[in-house]
Specification:
two-stranded parallel sheet, EF-hand domain-containing protein, globular, Recoverin, domain 1, alpha+beta, 45% helix, single chain, 4 helices, EF-hand-dom_pair
Amino acid sequence: MGRIVKDQADTKTLKPMKLTEDQIKKIFKKYDVNNDNQLSKEELKKAFHYLGSIIPGIRANRGLHHADANKDGVVDEGEMNELVKYAVGLGFKVKA
């Protein structure tokens, strides 16, 4: 479902591999540009764009819907795992 974003592959099959939860979490943390340990909708949009989403604004909205348990409009550290699960389910891959 997602676009290929990084150089890493299973060299035996040469098929793109899905990004792991840890890899996706690191990408999300990279987009916390103001280092407040929260991801705003705009930061999420940029992260989903980096991951290769063709509709990053919608993915950011859906990510917030899935992860923002306290409905404050951001994904904080305690909500990050739900966001990562959502993103993993979208099937973003690494480049072969």
